[in-house]
Sequence to fold (364 residues):
Amino acid sequence: MVHSDIRMDKNSVTDLVSEIHRLSKKIKRQVKFMEVCGTHTMTIARSGLRNLLPDNITLISGPGCPVCVVPNSYIDRAIAISNLDKTRILTFGDMFRVPSSVSSLEKQRSNGAKIDIVYSPLDGLELARAHTDETIVFLGVGFETTAPIVARVIKYAEKEKIKNFLVLSGHRLIPPAMEALVSSPGHNIDGFICPGHVSVVIGAEPYRIFAERYGIACVITGFEVCDILQSIIYLLEMISEIKEKSVYIQYSRCVNKDGNITARKTMYDVFEPVDSEWRGLGIIPLSGLAIKDKYSDFDAKKIPVNISSYREKKGCLCGMVLKGIISPFDCKLFGKQCTPENPVGPCMVSSEGACAAYYAYERR
Fold:
């Protein structure tokens, strides 16, 4: 396990880019690195980083946007719950405009449903205390970064005996999705730019399998341009065998190899891994988090609702974008029928979505 970091200054970019070009000449083949974090996707697009790289290095976006990977079935269930009397839905802002099979939370609210945007699941407890005549349902969407916080709030609700606060868990785990990608036939990922925020919680160990079993280099990366450039250098050094293929911690100012043990304990006290559906990737074993029976009083999945068979929007290729098979430019709807003002798929809605990033910063 190697830790590294770099001081950010205006001269670093030129030096790092020069080193990337030098190393790329030694490899003499096309390489693809996948970032698995929506914040990385935005940094890469906003900075124009792709334009600085040699022609034989391609950066592709993976399933790193939590809102984007949630399937329509989850959103359809949330919408069905919002139609119930004396029920209030709470959601982070990114989920508000994501289109489902038939509607969106935004449209539901315009039709009279009680749907509020919140900044923390703790806001849900406050509303539950203030509206005891309503059932408050928080949409728990996110990766290992947010799941421990939601778990802690569920524990608070149990301690305070707040029975009208529920969570509809849509939490997902990143490493199983990464393994689903590299174990699929014909994948062409040479290295992972691993997510910084998730890794603060899970540490480095879950990524070791990719280096040891699949021969894929991994670098846990910070969110500045120089962080990403330095990580690309580490990946190139591992591919060219200058360094041993392993899991490197570039983002050492925040990440250690063990992660946050307390946060994981809280998460797994309340949640348990289950097979879960990901948009574009299908059912991935043990890739989601369900509320344990011990805390079933706070599980919104127990609410009986009728959900018609869900479907994807015709022509939407978000699933292929999330798998790194295509870029947003390859979708015929991109920038035409599908825009941030009128999104067809979630990748155009979320502030961490690849399509939104390309639309804002990389349109040709």
Remarks:
- The two ends are 40 Å apart (CA to CA).
- The mean pLDDT is 93.
- Residues 70 and 179 are 18 Å apart (CA to CA).
